[in-house]
Design goal:
The complex is a heterodimer of chains A (419) and B (84).
Chain A (H helix, E strand, L loop, with lengths): L4 E10 L2 E2 L1 H10 L5 E2 L12 E2 L7 H4 L10 H16 L12 E6 L5 H14 L8 H4 L4 H10 L5 E4 L5 H12 L6 E8 L4 H8 L29 E9 H7 L6 E10 L11 H12 L8 E3 L6 H15 L5 E3 L2 H4 L6 H15 L1 E2 L15 E2 L5 E2 L4 E8 L3 E8 L16
Parallel strand pairs in A: 5-6, 5-7, 10-11, 10-15, 11-13
Antiparallel strand pairs in A: 1-2, 1-8, 1-9, 3-4, 7-8, 9-16, 12-14, 15-16
Helix pairs in contact in A: 3-6, 7-13, 10-11
Chain B lengths: L5 H12 L23 H15 L5 H6 L3 H11 L4
Helix pairs in contact in B: 1-2
Classes of the chains: A alpha/beta (419), B mainly alpha (84).
Chain lengths: 419, 84
C-alpha cells in the first residue's frame, strides 16, 4: 500500500521574492517582475530580459565554506532549503538520517561557475581550473550539497528533464516514501545566466527577443513570441503523512495525490503528442475525476504552436472552458527546474487561501483555444484540487495532482489578497 | 626567497576553500589535520592548485594527496621554493 505524501514546508527563492509570503503577495499583485538581464553583460545577445531573484546576498544565506565550492544555482537552493525546513519546523539533526531523502531537479547545472572555469582553461591553461569545477557544475551538485549540509543519507537523486524536471522531482519524492524514506527535501532551482548558459537556451528557438518586459512573455496570447527565462525556484518538504503526524507537524499544505510523466514521439511522427496522456494518468493515479479539478497551472510555453497544443490537451480532458487555467510564471519567466516547484507552492497557497493567482500580459486569446485563463487579477474561488503541468524541451511531459487535506481549505472570503 | 608563513597559508586557505563555521583558522593550526579543519581531499587539492598558481611552486596531485596538516604543506613548499 502506498504511503500518503504530504507537503509540510515551502521555501521560495524566486524573482517574485525571497520567502513564502513576499513571493505570494507579489504573485497576487499580478505584476510582471521581468526586467533587463543583469547577471552578466548580455548587451550583445538577442535575449535581453530575464526574471532574476532580487537582493539575494549569498554570504548571508550560504555558509562561507560552501560558497567557493558551489554554483549560484546551488546557493539559491541551499537558501530555499533553509526556508523550507524552517517553515516545516523541522530540525534534521533530530530526524533519522537514513530516512531523510533529497530529490531535486536541475536543468542548466552550474553554468556560471562553469563559465568562469572554462574561461580560465582557455585563457591560462588547465592548471588554472579549480578543483571544485569537478563538483560544482554537475546536475547532482545541489542534491549532494543539501544532503551533506543536513546529514540526509536516505535516497538521493536529481532529475534532469528541462522544465518538466521540477514536477518529476516531486513525483520522485513521493515515490521514495515507498522505499523507506519519511522526509524528503524536493523541488529545484535553476540559475541559467552566463554567456554559455544563455547560448544553450537560445538554441531551442523558443526564447523571446522582445525588450518590452510587459509584452515579452504572454502565454496563450495569439501574438505570443516566446518565453523569458528566469532564475530561482522553490524547495519543498514532502513527508509521509503518518511520520509527519508522529513528528507533530502543525500544518499540512496539501497532499501530492497523483503524478505521471510521458515522453513525446519524435518530430515528424504521425503519433500525437502525449501531454493529454500525462494529464489522464496523473488524474487516474490520484483517483480524481476531471470535474473535481479546480485549477490547472499550465506549462505555458509562450510559443503559439505549443500553447495551442497545451490548450487542446486541457480541452480534451476538461471540455471547452471547463476549468480555470493559470500561469503565474508569466510574471517570473520560465525558471526551468525551478518552475514546477514554484507552481506547486502557488497551487498549495491557492488551496490555503481560496484564490487563484493570475496570468499577466495576455491581451487576446485565440477563441479556438477554448481555455478559461485567469488573467490580470486573482480569482477568488475555493480550491481543493489542482493539476500542474510542465513540459521540457526535447519531449518531456509531467503532470502532478495536489489536493487539500482536511482542514487545509480556506473559505473564499479570505482577506489575504492585496489590491 | 623568504619562507612562506602560516599566515600566508591561512590567506590562501580562506581564498580557496572558505572557513567552516566551527573552525577558527587564527588558532595555532600548524599541526591540526585538514580533516579537523573541515578541509576534505578536494579542498586540499584546490589549495594545491592555488599554491601552484599564486606561489609558483609545482605541487603534483600525488604530493597534495599526502598533505595532512598545514605544516606539511609549508615544509613541502619551502623546500622547493626557488628550486622550480
Amino acid at each position: 500500500m502506498s504511503r500518503r505524501a504530504v507537503v509540510t514546508g515551502l521555501g521560495v527563492v524566486a524573482p517574485t521574492g525571497i520567502g513564502l509570503e513576499d513571493h505570494w503577495a507579489a504573485t497576487l499583485r499580478g505584476r510582471s517582475v521581468l526586467g533587463p538581464l543583469t547577471r552578466f553583460d548580455a548587451s550583445r545577445y538577442p535575449v535581453r530580459l530575464a526574471g532574476q531573484v532580487p537582493d539575494f546576498v549569498t554570504k548571508e544565506r550560504v555558509p562561507s565554506r560552501v560558497i567557493p565550492q558551489t554554483d549560484h544555482w546551488t546557493h539559491l537552493a541551499l537558501a530555499a532549503t533553509d526556508l523550507a525546513l524552517d517553515d516545516a519546523d523541522a530540525r534534521p539533526a533530530d530526524l533519522p538520517e537514513y530516512e531523510m531523502a533529497v530529490m531535486t531537479a536541475s536543468s542548466s547545472g552550474g553554468v556560471e561557475f562553469g563559465q568562469r572555469e572554462i574561461e580560465r582553461l582557455w585563457r591560462d591553461g588547465p592548471r588554472h581550473v579549480g578543483a571544485y569545477q569537478s563538483i560544482a557544475w554537475f546536475y547532482a551538485a545541489t542534491t549532494g550539497q543539501i544532503s551533506i549540509r543536513h546529514g540526509m543519507r536516505g535516497p538521493c537523486g536529481v532529475v534532469v528533464a528541462e522544465q518538466a524536471g521540477g514536477l518529476d522531482a516531486i513525483g520522485q519524492a513521493r515515490r521514495v516514501l515507498d522505499e523507506g524514506a519519511t522526509f524528503v527535501v524536493s523541488g529545484g532551482t535553476d540559475a541559467p545566466f552566463s554567456p554559455y548558459g544563455l547560448t544553450c537556451q537560445i538554441s531551442n528557438g523558443r526564447l523571446s527577443e522582445s525588450t518590452d518586459p510587459k509584452a515579452a512573455y504572454r502565454p496563450f496570447d495569439g501574438d505570443a513570441a516566446g518565453y523569458v527565462p528566469g532564475e530561482g525556484g522553490a524547495i519543498v518538504i514532502v513527508e509521509d503523512a503518518d511520520a509527519a503526524a508522529r513528528r507533530g507537524v502543525s500544518r499540512v499544505y496539501g497532499e501530492i495525490a497523483g503524478y505521471a510523466a510521458t515522453f513525446d514521439p519524435p518530430p515528424g511522427s504521425d503519433r500525437p503528442p502525449t501531454l493529454r496522456r500525462a494529464i489522464e494518468r496523473a488524474l487516474d493515479d490520484a483517483g480524481v475525476p476531471p470535474a473535481d479539478v479546480d485549477v490547472v497551472f499550465a506549462d505555458a510555453a509562450g510559443v503559439p504552436e505549443l500553447d495551442r497544443r497545451e490548450a487542446e490537451a486541457i480541452g480534451a480532458v476538461f471540455g471547452d472552458h471547463g476549468v480555470p487555467v493559470t500561469a503565474p510564471k508569466s510574471m517570473t519567466g520560465r525558471m526551468y527546474a525551478g518552475s514546477g516547484p514554484l507552481d506547486l507552492v502557488d497551487a498549495l497557497l491557492s488551496i490555503r487561501d481560496g484564490v487563484i493567482p493570475p496570468t499577466v500580459g495576455v491581451r487576446r486569446i485565440p477563441a479556438d483555444y477554448g481555455i478559461d485563463l485567469v488573467r490580470d487579477l486573482p480569482r477568488r474561488v475555493p480550491v481543493r484540487t489542482a493539476l500542474l503541468l510542465a513540459r521540457g524541451y526535447g519531449g518531456f511531459n509531467a503532470a502532478l495532482v495536489v489536493r487539500a487535506v482536511p482542514d487545509a481549505v480556506a473559505a473564499a472570503d479570505g482577506t489575504t489578497v492585496p489590491r | 626567497m623568504a619562507d612562506r608563513t602560516l599566515d600566508e597559508l591561512r590567506d590562501l586557505m580562506v581564498a580557496s576553500g572558505g572557513v567552516d563555521e566551527e573552525v577558527d583558522l587564527s588558532d595555532d593550526i600548524l599541526d591540526t589535520t585538514f580533516t579537523d579543519l573541515s578541509y576534505d581531499s578536494l579542498a586540499v587539492l584546490e589549495l594545491a592548485g592555488r599554491i601552484e598558481r599564486e606561489w609558483d611552486v609545482v605541487v603534483p596531485d600525488e604530493a597534495a594527496a599526502d598533505f595532512q596538516t598545514p605544516r606539511m604543506v609549508l615544509d613541502y613548499v619551502n623546500e622547493r621554493a626557488g628550486v622550480n
